[in-house]
Amino acid sequence: MDAPEPVDAPFDSKAFRDALGHFPTGIAVMTAATAETSHLGITVNSFTSVSLDPPLVLWCIDRRSRRYPAFAGAPGFTVSILASGHKAVSARLAGAGEHSLDGIALIPTALGPPALADSLAVFECALESVQEAGDHAILIGRVLRFWRNDAAGAPLVYFRGRYGALAQGDPPEGVVGRRATDGK
User: Fold this and answer.
1) Helix (H, G, I), strand (E, B) or coil at 150
2) Residues 62, 68 contacting (CB under 8 angstroms)
3) What number of other Cβ atoms are within 10 A of residue 123's Cβ?
4) Residue 117 contacts residue 106 (beta carbons within 8 Å)
5) pLDDT at position 98, please?
6) Residue 8 covered by a domain
7) Highest mean pLDDT among 11-15, 45-49, 167-171
8) Which end of the chain has a smaller Cβ tally under 10 Å, C or N?
């Protein structure tokens, strides 16, 4: 397929966002607490690993978000990797408005900000740095503790503006121990 010709026109932010949506991502909920706030949460799909030594992860937050000052000023945050059953929690914490964790099944952590119950994995992180990047900030955390829940099921994913889940089928015939989605 030939690449389209560049167009000399104003940058189309909506088209850019739609194109980025073609990259499927996992979904996580970040939780934090500061002296000024109770525990709060935010849904993100920008979570990724940075380094194994030292163990660092990052995620991004819009600097215009009302939650930005709390997360950027907190000493740390907890990352809960969502399972497919967390769609309602993800949707609730994704938009403007409700930031409270009231009524959500939680697990206490040693760091303080709770983890979501039945998460696929949890990472407790000390805030390492905050880097401004356009209209967002990149929050880098040093992982202090983590655990995984192999019984929690399939991950919740986001693709083209919609929630979904990965197929978790049996391995293809003749390929011992691999699922169809694992590659060769």
Assistant:
1) coil
2) yes
3) 27
4) yes
5) 65
6) no
7) 45-49
8) N
Q: How far apart are the first and last CA of the chain?
A: 25
- Residue 182 is assigned to a structural domain of this protein: no
Q: Is the pLDDT of residue 105 over 90?
A: yes
What is the three-class DSSP state of 83? strand
Report the distance separating Cα 102 and Cα 19, nearest Å. 35
pLDDT tens sequence across 128-169 = 999 999 999 999 999 999 999 988 788 999 988 888 877 654
Q: What is the rounded CA–CA span in Å between residue 129 and residue 75? A: 10
What is the rounded CA–CA span in Å between residue 73 and residue 35? 10
**Is residue 87 in a domain?**
yes
CATH code, 155 = 2.30.110.10
Q: Name 12's Cβ contacts closer than 8 Å, sequence gap at least 6.
A: none
Number of domains in the chain: 1
Q: Is residue 45 part of a domain?
A: yes
Contacts of 29 (CB under 8 A, 6+ apart): 41, 42, 43, 44, 79, 80, 82, 86, 89, 90, 93, 116
Domain hosting 44: range is: 25-166
Cβ-based neighbours of 15, under 8 Å, separated by 6 or more: none
Pick from 104, 86, 77: nearest CA to 27? 86
Cis peptide before 114 (omega within 30 of 0): no
